[in-house]
Amino acid sequence: MTSTIEPATGREAACATPCGALRRPAALVRNIDVSGLVDSDTGLLDRAIFTDEQLYRQELRRVFAPNWLFLAHIDQFHKPGDFFTTYIGEDPVIVTMDKDRRIRAYLNSCRHRGARVCRADEGATRNFTCTYHGWAYDLDGKLVSIPNKDGYPESFDTKDWGLVEVPHVETYRGLIFGTWNPQPSPLRDYLGDMAWYLDAMLDHDDEGTVVVGGVHKWVLEGNWKLAAEQFATDWYHVNMSHASALMVLSPTKNPKNEIVHRTGRQFLDPNGHGAGFPVHAKNRFNAQKVHEWIDYDALRERLGEARVEGPLTDGHATVFPNFSYLPVIGTIRVWHPKGPDRMEVWSWTVVDKSMPPEVREAQRLYNLRTFGPSGIFEQDDGENWSEVQAISHGFITNSVPLNYQMGIGSEREDGRHPGTTSELYSDAAGRAFYGRWRDLMNTPAWHEKETR
Ligand code: FES
Ligand SMILES: [Fe+2]
């Protein structure tokens, strides 16, 4: 991570909505009590949480807006004006580096008639100029130029019409997160014990990670939670869903016995994060060239035996709500919600900055073959989520609950891995994920408290 890059944490912009915002009638933001839809004690889930339009709107208000969400990797910004456009929930945001080299994020919507002021995926600029009527904003989000300014009343002050800024942006080991919440807990506190597991991918040495290649984006017909949940809690599907892919890539003759049928642990967190991993060296399942380059003794020294023979071996993880990664494959991704029935997957490949070019290339290709948009594992997963979603709107189907009961009662502190863990094959992190989701859905967010 470049030390001169500073996120815009704690800046004066403590308000996530612009001054003078209109007061929205309460009828437009009716909330549903979801207690009856998620029973994390008995491990039952109502499928309405994947299909209901009103619940989806509530999710945008109460799950996406108040939480820390992943925006970009720090390696995407090297000089002032570098930018990347993404989403917080369904809100488009521009992430950019200002003249003081701070990372800042703005709502990508013109204050005039609302068009996006930046339509490119990424690039470098001095100003963001709206292509509708030409209002232009600088890297501080200030409105710096408008055509026919004389036509506006004297009370019009450009200071009042800057881009709406994401009030808090923080980084953790090169990952940039932002939140609309004006008073969030610090990102590090939000991650809690999850940081220990994240470090298995991001903290191999002092140089940190960089992005290799671009950002892959593809659309899946399925609710975003199906993917986030699987990455939090589901090693169970590997043996069945990925059987053929394992046969293709396995260095052994019997991948099911030697790779999949192993013990391991699953981490679950009260904030909804989750991670699972086998705990046996034979589970290492990465590109041979990468495997040979890695200095496992140095890693043991730095990260400890439990982490090297755990989350650094293989596995899956989700930082609540919609950021997931696979520590060994080096894929990090966001499941962007696009309505209850659709998600857009955005995926980056990260590698150690210290990796020589040929090892980076080996990792990039391995990532593409396995979890790129046409990767042999990725397609198995996408197919499953679309299959679940495709039938969930049936009236009877929708009212038959789903089972998340595996490993009920197995949650404990295991003395080796931080936080609470369960068995490798377990729904424990899934229950925690949906428990957190339910609590957030039932809790008024800051923007509701302000208007009371
Ligand atoms: S909508 Fe941007 S200038 Fe009019
Ligand atoms: Fe999978």
From TrEMBL:
Gene3D superfamilies: Naphthalene 1,2-dioxygenase Alpha Subunit, Chain A, domain 1, Rieske [2Fe-2S] iron-sulphur domain. Transmembrane segments: none annotated. It comes from the Bacteria. Keywords: 2Fe-2S, Aromatic hydrocarbons catabolism, Dioxygenase, Iron, Iron-sulfur, Metal-binding, NAD, Oxidoreductase. InterPro entries: ARHD_Rieske_2Fe_2S (IPR015881), RHO_NdoB-like_C (IPR043266), Rieske_2Fe-2S (IPR017941), Rieske_2Fe-2S_sf (IPR036922), Ring_hydroxy_dOase_asu_C_dom (IPR015879), Rng_hydr_dOase-A (IPR001663). The keyword Transcription does not apply. The keyword NAD applies. Residues 68-166 form the Rieske domain. PROSITE patterns: RIESKE, RING_HYDROXYL_ALPHA. Pfam families: Rieske, Ring_hydroxyl_A. GO terms for molecular function: dioxygenase activity. Belongs to the bacterial ring-hydroxylating dioxygenase alpha subunit family. PANTHER family: 3-PHENYLPROPIONATE_CINNAMIC ACID DIOXYGENASE SUBUNIT ALPHA, CHOLINE MONOOXYGENASE, CHLOROPLASTIC. This is Aromatic ring-hydroxylating dioxygenase subunit alpha. It comes from Nocardia vinacea.
